[in-house]
Amino acid sequence: MMKGSGLFFLSFWILGTPTLWAQTVSKNISVSFEIEPVTVLKANSESGVSAVRLGPVSPGTQVPNQTLTVSIVTNTRQRYRVYHELRGEVTSSEGISFPQDQLLFMATAGTQGGASQVPSFIPVPQGEISLFTSKSEGGPDSFQILYSLENKKLFSAGLYYGNISLDLRTE
Amino acid sequence: MGTSPLTFEQNRIRNYWIFLLLVPMIAGGMGTPLAGAQSEDISLTVSFVGGGGSLDFGRLRNLDENGTPTTESSTRQVRLVIQPAQGSVRPYIVTQILSSEMTQEAGGAAPTNSVLFRVEEESGSGEVRIPNPTPLTVGEQEIYHSSPTGSSSQLLITYDLTASPDQQAGTYNGIIDYRVSLT
């Protein structure tokens, strides 16, 4: 009798199991898209153009500093560095070179955490120099480059020109 | 030649085993809901409108060449065809599941609301269960309830992706799961 009762209970369990009712089907799909990386460096003087104009210069007179505001707009999160390059000498239309040690510059820290590599005035070197590094995660930032004339020497009269290049490179 | 009490007990046990084996087979052959659940499968077919094997929105820009924020967008569509087994009268629910945020290589997540979707019933007599459009969010979203009798249906899901101006560059990936459950 005990064996018979056990078998009856077992048959009830098989017929009544709720797992037979659950019916589910699923499928998955991959989703993807790409946001194009863009990094733009802009440099504007106080007059709104990409040029720095110092002077006119009178011997022995302090010339106001000129400021170039550099803005980096980017959607990347890579650390970067901004290089300053004075291409060739600053020369007059008569071909006279401006004394290199009389043109000074410095860079401020970034408004978003970047660091200046030239935090105080030094003579602008010919060629390339590291000027600014972003914070470790990169991102947009802005800083200023200040140019100054020592004006402690007597310069030859004339209009002097030079070319400056700013270059941003990710690390 | 009489049957001994011991032999009688053995016969009873054998009869029960026969009962156990036969009942599910007989019930299944009659097509009752109880045993018919074994064959009451429902099929789900997923296809991409315009072809392809994935929901690829392509390449978008959120900054133009001057660094000015721009909001490019892209639209893709997926079609779901739900076909209950013949004779089935059980209603079903369609659920869309985004198990985790869509992220790019560096782990940056796509902003909430960057993907909106809407569901359109192309055929069937059920009910779309979301407001159109709805943000694609992490978790489960019940998007459709079938008719009470569980008739077949065809759904067109349209996804609109908008590149957010503050979104990191990179390739974002994610998985969307569609689940059809008989209720």
Question: Please, could you describe this protein's structure?
Answer:
Chain A has 171 residues and is mainly beta. In chain A, 9% of the residues lie in helices and 45% in strands. Chain A contains 1 helix and 10 strands. A 5-stranded antiparallel sheet of chain A has the order 2-3-9-5-7, with no helix packed on it. A 4-stranded antiparallel sheet of chain A has the order 6-8-4-10, with no helix packed on it. Chain A starts with a helix and ends with a strand. The N terminus of chain A is likely disordered. By secondary structure, chain B is α+β, with helices and mostly antiparallel strands. Chain B folds into 2 domains: 31 residues; 143 residues, Immunoglobulin-like (Sandwich). The N and C termini of chain B lie far apart (58 Å). The N terminus of chain B is likely disordered. At the A-B interface, α1, β1 and β3 of A face α1, β1, β2 and β10 of B.
Q: Could you state the order of secondary-structure elements of chain B as H and E?
A: HHEEEEEEEEEE
Q: Using DSSP, what is the number of strands of chain A?
A: 10
Q: Radius of gyration of chain A, rounded?
A: 34 Å
Helix count of chain B, per DSSP? 2
**N- to C-terminal separation of chain A?**
84 Å
In whole angstroms, how far apart are the ends of chain B? 58 Å
Considering DSSP H and I runs of 4 or more, what fraction of the residues of chain A is helical? under 10%
Please give the radius of gyration of chain B in angstroms.
26 Å
Of all protein chain pairs, which has the greatest interface, and how many residues does each chain bring to it?
A-B, 35 and 61 residues
Structural shape of chain A: elongated
What is the count of β-strands of chain B?
A: 10
Low-confidence stretches of chain B: 1-39
Widest sheet: strand ordering of chain A: 2-3-9-5-7
Order of helices and strands of chain A: HEEEEEEEEEE
Total domain units of chain B: 2
CATH class of the domain at 67-170 in chain A: Mainly Beta
The main pleated sheet of chain B reads as: 5 strands, antiparallel
Largest sheet of chain A: 5 strands, antiparallel
Average residue pLDDT of chain B:
82
